[in-house]
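Hi V.,

You were right to ask for the full record rather than a summary. Here it is.
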Amino acid sequence: MESTVERRQTGLSEEEMRKRLTRLKIEHRDLDAAIDALTAAGSPDQLQIARLKKRKLLLRDQIAMIEDYLTPDIIA
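Predicted structure:
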């Protein structure tokens, strides 16, 4: 996970963050497809499925953090 402080330390531009966001979303979608395929095939390897789900959740959190950073705060 990359926080705002980490972004500043690595010097990622907004464009680079958007590219990273795109890559994370693609990986998240691919993991979803892999999990669905393993489940549909009746895969007995529940440990592998659990690991894929855990990775998918981690990606979701990273995606949310980047989206929050890229979305300007609205002062009400």
